[in-house]
Design goal:
Blueprint: H1 3-8, E1 9-12, E2 17-20, E3 26-31, H2 36-48, E4 50-56, H3 62-73, E5 77-81, E6 84-90, E7 102-103, H4 108-119, E8 124-128, H5 139-147, E9 151-154, H6 155-158, E10 160-166, E11 175-177, H7 183-193, E12 199-203, H8 211-218, E13 223-226, E14 229-233, E15 245-247, H9 252-264, E16 268-276, H10 283-290, E17 294-301, H11 312-315, E18 325-331, E19 339-340, H12 352-359, E20 364-368, H13 381-391, E21 395-399, E22 402-407, H14 422-433, E23 441-444, H15 456-461
Parallel strand pairs: 3-16, 4-15, 7-8, 11-12, 19-20
Antiparallel strand pairs: 1-2, 2-23, 4-6, 5-6, 8-10, 9-10, 12-14, 13-14, 16-18, 17-18, 20-22, 21-22
Bound molecules: shikimate-3-phosphate.
The site of shikimate-3-phosphate has 10 residues, from helix 7.
Length: 463
């Protein structure tokens, strides 16, 4: 074990525990694993398309593997070679009834999007999840799918997993205004709409991530999107064809950890290559820049869904998915407090725990509002972030829909309570990397990072 390794993180497997120290300086260049949201959608659409799809850059995280196993359980053949997943699509009507309960594990995206697909199958299925997922709300998907004709039974009238689904074909088309700003609900309904006998339209008042719309276009499905109204015609079999190859860009939500670290740390410069910068995902970048963060966006390229011209080296890696990518460079910065509320919230929802940590290092008050959705993520992130930041000496007040944070306050090492939430574990590893004191921060269950970023602690070891 080198001194340098010892200086930053020690992973102790038994018990599953990490000791994290603050490094004096961080100068590094890295890339992050494939985008989680795009990886789920790539597997689902490749499974439902006609023809073979090779997916490059897939995220091999537990959440995405749950989606993979689910479609395999419904008869889709997949093979892995050199880190590339090749899927033999069965066509929109080619899935077969699963013989066992479908298990979404910890993955809300798997559960909610797959419900949309299952609604349009003429077979019976049962969907379950882990201890965290069975507590997360499903009525937001179940209710509109029932309006489309699916029969769904479940705990508390179908508000929670496990759910039993009697799909129906064709489903009734739907015009539906989303009551919560949720890309998972929007996507579930767009997938169900493929099986509807007519045109369905989903309306959103606040924009959410649009990876499903982009990916559907990549698979040749005509889909219109104007002023928050997204419409598609059901029965799209003829046009639902594999693009052949898909390259998944790096996950902005994973890059966000390194952006946060670089801007907070006393002596840091981090370059992150090949990051997806879809504007429906990059609210965190905008907020950091508004706080004074020094972050450069380099070699931005946009790739057309149908495989338009590639510009620059970063562009090639998202060929055919219609997603913009860039390299990001972040360095030590002087930060000011800010207010984050309203329309931007869905565009940085997964990065809000990190933003709360960054806010402790900013001059003045930071207020986060309108983020009550944080309470129904993999954990109650409003409560869990506040509790951990307080343990590290920050001035944080949890509110009903966010936090009030006063800074700057130095963070001190602490033994943090265990969490089964991957983003909480990783966000507080970043907090630990800037904590000052003569002992390490103790983080329990670091292995939970495998849900979305299996190599996270390997990166820490290399600082
Ligand atoms: C996701 C949408 C968001 C996000 C989640 C991934 C997706 O959830 O928090 O991590 O891939 O569609 P909601 O749609 O529930 O806001």
């Amino acid at each position: 074990m080198s001194l340098r390794y010892e200086a930053v993180v020690r992973l102790l497997r038994d018990p599953d525990r990490a000791e994290i120290y603050s490094p004096k300086a961080i100068k590094t260049r890295l890339s992050v694993p494939g985008d989680k949201s795009i990886s789920h959608r790539a597997i689902m659409l490749a499974s439902l398309a006609e023809g073979e799809t090779a997916i490059h850059g897939l995220l091999w995280g537990e959440d995405v593997l749950a989606t993979k196993h689910m479609f395999e359980a419904m008869g889709v053949k997949m093979r892995v070679m050199d880190d590339r997943l090749t899927i033999s699509g069965v066509g929109l009507n080619g899935l077969t009834a699963p013989q066992h309960v479908l298990h979404a594990g910890n993955s809300g995206t798997t559960a909610r999007l797959v419900l949309g697909v299952l609604a349009g199958q003429d077979f019976f299925s049962v969907l379950d999840g882990d201890d965290s997922l069975v507590r997360r709300p499903m009525a937001r998907v179940v209710e509109p799918l029932r309006q489309m004709g699916a029969r769904i039974e479940g705990r508390e009238g179908g508000r929670y997993l496990p759910l039993a689904m009697h799909g129906i074909r064709p489903l009734k088309p739907i015009v539906y205004r989303l009551p919560v700003a949720s890309a998972q609900v929007k996507s579930a309904l767009l997938l169900a709409a493929l099986y509807a006998g007519g045109e369905s339209c989903i309306e959103e008042t606040v924009p959410t991530r649009d990876h499903t719309e982009r990916m559907l276009r990549t698979f040749g499905v005509p889909i219109s999107s104007e002023n928050g109204r997204i419409c598609l015609q059901g029965g799209a079999e003829q046009r639902f064809v594999s693009p052949g190859t898909i390259s998944v860009p790096g996950d902005f939500s994973s890059a966000a950890f390194w952006l946060a670290l670089a801007v907070m740390h006393q002596d840091a410069e981090i370059i992150i290559e090949n990051v997806g910068i879809n504007p429906t995902r990059t609210g965190f970048l905008e907020v950091l820049q508004a706080m004074g963060a020094e972050i450069e966006v380099i070699s931005v390229s946009s790739v057309e869904p149908t495989g338009g011209t590639l510009q620059g080296p970063a562009a090639s890696s998202s060929a055919l998915v219609g997603e913009p990518v860039a390299n990001l460079m972040a360095r030590t910065s002087t930060l000011n407090g800010t207010t984050v509320a309203g329309e931007i919230i869905p565009r940085l929802i997964d990065e809000l725990p990190l933003l709360a940590i960054v806010a402790t290092q900013a001059q003045g008050r930071t207020i986060v509002r309108d983020a009550e959705e944080l309470k129904v993520k993999e954990s109650d992130r409003i409560r869990d972030v506040a509790m951990r930041l307080q343990a590290m000496g920050a001035s944080v007040l949890a509110t009903d829909d966010g936090w009030i944070i006063d800074g700057p306050t130095p963070l001190k090492p602490a033994e943090l309570p265990p969490s089964s939430d991957h983003r909480i574990a990783m966000a507080f590893s970043i907090a630990a990397l800037i904590a000052k004191g003569d002992r390490p921060t103790i983080l329990h269950a670091p292995s939970v990072a495998a849900v979305s970023y299996p190599s996270f602690f390997e990166v820490l070891k290399n600082f």
